[in-house]
Amino acid sequence: TVLPARPPSPPRAQIPVSSSLPPPPPKPAPPKPQPHSFPPPLPPPSSSVPAPPPLPSSRPEIAASGFGPAPNTLTEPVWDTVKRDLSRIVSNLKLVVFPNPYREDPGKALRDWDLWGPFFFIVFLGLTLSWSASVKKSEVFAVAFGLLAAGAVILTLNVLLLGGHIIFFQSLSLLGYCLFPLDVGALICMLKDNVILKVVVVCVTLAWSSWAAYPFMSSAVNPRRKALALYPVFLMYVSVGFLIIAID
Questions:
Q1: Fewer CB atoms near the end CB (10 Å): N or C, the chain?
Q2: TM spans, by residue (predicted)?
Q3: Longest Cα pair distance anywhere in the chain, in angstroms?
């Protein structure tokens, strides 16, 4: 026997599939903060005692641009200017020539350098040597002044070319102040005309001048080039010493 065929099944309903995800639900807005109510501030208590006046300050007022206004030297008297320059020369002379704790640091020793003191010592030495000479006084002064002035410039350039960390005019000032002992020796030799006394005085003052110039010149250059900086200085002072002994 042949069974009857089954009727065809009805078509199934298809579910639509979307590739894009549904948007997320919106987030709830945060609650607004409610303002708090503060009590009104209390009025300050009234006092019948007056406030004390501000205490006078002993410190000078400092300007915003620096340590106060710069002193005006154009309207000051001439005598005040001369006194200020003389006090600076005496202070620098003490720092360079005489023993003090600042001789090992040239920056502290001559931070306030000047050229009036070296110029005065060079001119004084030239005048002393010219007064000691019996003839050709003007030529002696010219030779002494030219030797000292040109020698100081050449020695300063030598220190700078060796890589020295020093200012040009500061080095000139140092070399000029170191001539003070030789000035004293030339003055003593002019007053006492004795060859043995001249040799002794020149040796002492030469050692004094070299001792005064040693810490500044040696600390300004590299330790390996110290001899190259000190030898020309010593040679110039030795030449001045020979001039003091030789002039009659």
A1: N
A2: 115-133, 140-161, 167-188, 195-216, 228-247
A3: 171
- Summarised one tens digit per residue, pLDDT across range 25-83 is 666 666 565 555 555 556 555 555 555 555 554 444 434 444 444 556 667 777 888 88
Measured from the Cβ of residue 155, the count of other Cβ atoms closer than 10 Å reads 22
Locate 149 and state its tokens. 């002035």
Model confidence, pTM = 0.63
Q: 14 in helix, strand or coil? A: coil
- Answer yes or no: is pLDDT of 199 > 80: yes
Give the count of alpha carbons within 13 A of 117, CB side only: 30
Query: Rg of the chain over CA atoms, in angstroms?
Result: 44
Q: Which residues of 44-53 are buried (b: 16+ CB within 10 A; e: fewer)?
A: eeeeeeeeee
Q: What share of the chain is helix, strand, coil (3-state, %, to 5)?
A: 55, 0, 45
